[in-house]
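User: Please write out a complete single-protein record containing the residue sequence and its fold in token form, without commentary.

AI:
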Amino acid sequence: MAGRAHDAGEGPRVPAAERARVLLIEAPYYAGIAEALAAGAVAELEAAGASFERIVVPGALEIPQVLAQAVKAGLIPADAANARFDGCVVLGCVIRGETSHYETVCANTNHWLMDIAVRHAIPLGNAILTVESEAQALARAEGGRNGKGADAVRACLALIGHARALAASTACPRSAD
């Protein structure tokens, strides 16, 4: 999700994601940053009329594990046996420190999130901030519906809309010309 946040009313039109059900996985390791990300995400979910459930984990590395557990339980993706969710939004922050732990956390968290999302066709919005300082993180997290938490929700809802449109197009076979 590169780029700066934009006005919530801007952007390309995406297929409808009405009544979307979203799993929100949060790692509030940095409380103030996590609160700002969550506030923006929740505001955007509510504005879109989406329902959501929140799961809190200790840190960013635990986020992919919870998503994998939701897949294993059949709660996600939308076509799973016991599906409760159409997509997932992840929120967290990793701030570079003095050791190589930053690279390990960033690389593994994002690798496994994308692996699970792609392998299981899960619409995923990612607002795990990877930054050099707390000031950088706050600048990206704050802003309500113009912050990165809301950006991740918009990405997830767009992907849900695309998944629904693609599924509908395969349900209606084309007529032979």
About this structure: The chain is about 45% helix and 15% strand.
